[in-house]
Amino acid sequence: MGTKSLESIYGASVRAAAEQAAEARKKADRLAVEARNARMLGFKGPAQPSSTLGDALNAAYGYLEVRCIGCDTNQTFALDIVRRPKCTQVHELERYMRCKNCSQVRGYPYKRSQLVALRPTKISTSSPPSTWWPGGR
After folding, report:
1. How far apart are CA 56 and CA 32, in angstroms?
2. What is the DSSP string of 14-41?
3. Using one digit for the tens of pLDDT, what is the confidence trace for 21-30?
4. Is 66 exposed, middle or buried (0-12, 13-18, 19+ CB in 10 A)?
5. Which residues, at least 6 apart from 46, have a Cβ–Cβ distance to it below 8 Å?
6. Most exposed of 12, 43, 67, 117 (fewest Cβ within 10 Å)?
7. Which residues pair with 67 in a beta bridge?
8. What percentage of the chain's residues is helix, strand, coil (to nearest 5)?
9. Are residues 118 and 33 in contact, defined by beta-carbon separation less than 8 angstroms?
10. Residue 67: left if φ>0, alpha if ψ -120 to 50, beta else—which one?
11. pTM: predicted TM-score of the whole model, two decimal places
12. Where are the alpha helices (DSSP H) in 1-137?
């Protein structure tokens, strides 16, 4: 005559609660990233405080779109290859961005870039670059 272990009694409810908490975190991160993107595109500038790398990756926004001020081109890069802690805010990455084309023309690292938005996919023909909202400053 044995007793039931706590795992068999409470295990399913604990796992279900953990799954619900993970889904809630993912939804909250996605909403925070979408709000930041709306601020960035609406105000044509940096939105601070911004999301962290970990929040963006958790929300499935794996790419950052950057605009070069020198040659007016938009490029994306993957956030999962960034060598920074996951608690680093996205707007802090702006000072490390360099345009490859402008740097080759000038002969030195050209760091005049502007963060545009976090994206779930790369820029392609089916997913064109983000555009600023009309009006404004």
Report:
1. 9
2. HHHHHHHHHHHHHHHHHHHHHHHHHHHH
3. 999 999 999 9
4. buried
5. 40, 91, 94, 115
6. 12
7. 74, 114
8. 45, 15, 40
9. yes
10. beta
11. 0.78
12. 6-43, 53-58, 100-106
